[in-house]
């Protein structure tokens, strides 16, 4: 499966497969490392994570990947790294061409042309936690941080002026009118001539288009036989763009999403979101999920009756978003964040990294009709006054790039949050009846509904009840196979009763626009003493375990959500 955009004339080399590899250990000084001199005596799969493999399981240190690609002499290259962790340095033919610390982000690296055809690529990857070097990811995050090239790597051969992306926005749903912004890469002229075509129709010339200072050219098009994209009928269209000796094909859907007071409207029709938060996680593959697993996950979510997925808590695999486009799932995508505090919000390096990753997320996923929300900073300390400048900056960053979607974030302090006025949708993470008072009842399920009503009352008292309210996380843990006559915490029975209570309230409460249950499947988390609160070193709140075996709650949620759906 290829992710969009695609190319007919541009030469693209997919570098997935077995790479040469060396693990260098935990004490490497990156400032003096000569990666070119490292003997690569092992092999490692790309996509993949080295610290999920038996030989390096749980190791935190430096590794070097290497491969070769045969390209056209004299032709410049662009390496597309679809996602890795946690930090990387890229060398081509022994020369460093990039260094970055943007876990999970898809990034592009420019490579100068060479007179020879055989090009050697080496990528240094480091998964050690280092606040200065990798400001976005911390050891206190409640999901495991893997190291490696866990998404695809491509080498694109490009001319001096090439096509970067063509961003498509629906301007008139009924008429099928779209607005297109073509981003150019390279020294941009004042004006440019393009050829464009829609679906299988003929191409038309668009001569002498003005190019803005940031290298973009904009124009409007009419889709000849427009079909709206909906979860029930996820119709997709394609846009072809040609520039001299370069081309690209983008896929898009005609659809709108907006808030109408407390309601969500998809294509101007009321929408109730029913679904799950989902990590890219598997005990054998980490976040480097094979395509077969992505398909299986979505089939399970469809069987549950879901129409919604919150991608937790980082930019998603483009292959997964492609499948959601095709199958009609609605998606919340968010940049990397989990529980940051005041010292993060006031750190310029952290703020700059957040803005950079958020911009990349929007640019990379702009044409996926499945994505209806952009989010950021899951469970940040948004009750602190110091949080507001960064939250406002991220909202402004997103809206400057895309006003066709709604902006939100997930707060775990909805009663005290200071920034909810900034966003379009209120996302509330809450766990009443799970993280309960030690003095509460043995099975405090009666805490759930009153707490949700308190959240609604608090929003109303602050004048925020005119925004849609989404339960962005709510759930209870269960250990697969543990059945208990007392139906106590960690039993499958307690989780089933808990999620049943939540789902029934969401469906009955017109003031709740939807729910993303926490979570789809169990996922690996802390591997240190913090795991004393996470049995098996997993977050066990999945409705399925880490191998996708359903717990008792599966049937309860399916009955509530009405799966399977067409």
The CATH architecture of the largest domain comes to Alpha-Beta Barrel
Return residue spans where pLDDT drops below 50 for at least 5 consecutive residues.
Answer: none
CATH level-3 fold name of the largest domain: TIM Barrel
Please give the radius of gyration in angstroms.
24 Å
**Domain module count:** 3
Give the CA-based shape. globular
Strands of the widest sheet, in order across it, are: 25-24-23-22-21-29-28-27-26
Q: Tally of extended strands?
A: 31
What share of the residues lie within helices?
10-25%
Mean pLDDT across the residues is 96
What does this protein structure show overall?
With 566 residues, the protein is an alpha/beta fold. The longest helix has 18 residues, at 348-365. It is globular and about 75 Å long. The strands form seven sheets. The chain has a nine-stranded parallel sheet, covered by helices on one side. Strands 3-2-4-9-6-7 form a six-stranded antiparallel sheet, with no helix packed on it. α1 (291-303) packs parallel to α2, α4 packs parallel to α5 (388-401) and α7 (492-508) packs parallel to α8. Helix content is 17%, strand content 30%. It is built from eight helices and 31 strands. It has three domains: 12-158, Jelly Rolls, CATH 2.60.120.260; 162-255, Immunoglobulins (Immunoglobulin-like); 269-561, TIM Barrel (Alpha-Beta Barrel). β16 and β17 form a beta hairpin.
């Amino acid at each position: 499966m290829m992710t969009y955009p695609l190319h007919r004339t541009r030469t693209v080399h997919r570098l997935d497969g077995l790479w040469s590899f060396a693990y260098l250990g935990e004490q490497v000084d990156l400032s003096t490392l000569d990666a070119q001199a490292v003997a690569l005596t092992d092999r490692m799969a790309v996509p993949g994570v080295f610290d999920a493999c038996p030989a390096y399981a749980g190791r935190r240190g430096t590794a070097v990947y290497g491969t070769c690609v045969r390209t056209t002499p004299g032709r410049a290259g662009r390496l597309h790294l679809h996602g890795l962790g946690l930090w990387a340095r890229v060398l081509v033919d022994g020369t460093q061409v990039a260094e970055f610390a943007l876990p999970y982000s898809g990034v592009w690296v420019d490579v100068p042309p060479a007179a020879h055809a055989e090009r050697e690529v080496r990528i240094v990857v480091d998964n050690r936690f280092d606040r200065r070097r990798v400001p976005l990811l911390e050891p206190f995050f409640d999901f495991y941080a893997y190291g490696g090239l866990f998404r695809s790597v491509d080498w694109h051969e490009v001319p001096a002026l090439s096509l970067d992306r063509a961003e498509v926005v629906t301007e008139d749903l009924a008429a099928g009118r779209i607005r297109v912004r073509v981003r150019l890469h390279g020294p941009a002229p004042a004006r440019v001539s393009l050829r464009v075509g829609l679906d299988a129709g003929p191409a038309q010339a668009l001569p002498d288009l003005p190019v803005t200072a940031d290298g973009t050219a904009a124009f409007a098009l009419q889709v000849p036989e427009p079909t709206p994209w909906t979860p029930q009928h996820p119709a997709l269209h394609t846009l072809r763009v040609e520039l001299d000796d370069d081309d690209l094909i983008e896929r898009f859907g005609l659809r709108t999403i907006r808030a109408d007071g407390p309601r969500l409207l998809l294509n101007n029709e009321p929408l109730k979101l029913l679904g799950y938060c989902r990590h890219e996680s598997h005990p054998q593959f980490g976040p480097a999920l094979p395509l077969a697993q992505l398909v299986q996950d979505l089939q399970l979510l469809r069987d549950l009756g879901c129409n919604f997925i919150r991608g937790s808590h980082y930019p998603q695999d483009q292959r997964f978003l492609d499948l959601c486009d095709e199958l009609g799932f609605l998606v919340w995508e968010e940049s990397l964040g989990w529980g940051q505090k005041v010292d993060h919000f006031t750190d310029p390096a952290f703020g700059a990294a957040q803005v950079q990753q958020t911009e990349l997320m929007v640019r990379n996923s702009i044409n996926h009709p499945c994505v209806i929300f952009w989010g950021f900073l899951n469970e940040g300390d948004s009750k602190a006054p110091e949080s507001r400048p960064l939250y406002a900056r991220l909202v402004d960053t997103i809206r400057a790039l895309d006003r066709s979607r709604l902006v939100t974030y997930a707060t775990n302090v909805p009663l005290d949050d200071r920034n909810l006025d900034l966003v379009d949708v209120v996302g509330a993470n809450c766990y009443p009846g799970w993280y309960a008072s030690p003095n509460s009842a043995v099975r405090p399920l009666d805490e759930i509904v009153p707490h949700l009503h308190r959240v609604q009352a608090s929003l109303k008292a602050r004048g925020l009840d005119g925004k849609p309210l989404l339960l962005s996380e709510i759930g209870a843990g269960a250990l697969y196979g543990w059945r208990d006559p007392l139906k106590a915490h960690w039993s499958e029975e307690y989780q089933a009763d808990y999620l049943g209570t939540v789902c029934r309230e969401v469906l009955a409460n017109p003031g709740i626009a939807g729910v993303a249950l926490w979570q789809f499947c169990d996922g690996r988390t802390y591997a240190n003493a913090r795991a004393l609160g996470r049995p098996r070193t997993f977050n066990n709140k999945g409705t399925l375990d880490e191998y996708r075996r359903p717990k008792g709650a599966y049937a309860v949620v399916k009955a509530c959500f009405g799966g399977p759906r067409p």
